[in-house]
Amino acid sequence: MFCKNTNTALFYGSVDKIPVNTWKILNCENNVYFHRDFLQSIQKNHPEITFSYIILVNENELPIAFSTIQIVDFYMNSIQKNFYFLKSLGRKLRILKDSKPLKLLISGNTFVSGEHGVFIKPNENKQKVILELAKAINHFVNSNKTLKNKIDAFLLKDFVNESLSITDELKNVSYHPFSVEPNMLFHIDKNWQTFDDYLAAMKTKFRVKAKKAYSQSASIDIEEITFANIEEKLTEMTTLYQKVTANANFNLSDFNLETYKDFKEKFGEKYILKAFYLRGKLVGFMSGIINHNSLDAHFVGIDYQLNKAYAIYQRMLYSYVEIAIHKKLKTINFGRTASEIKSSVGAIPQDLTMYLRHKKTITNKILKLFLQRIQPTPFQQKFPFKK
Question: In total, how many domains does the chain have?
Answer without folding.
Answer: 2
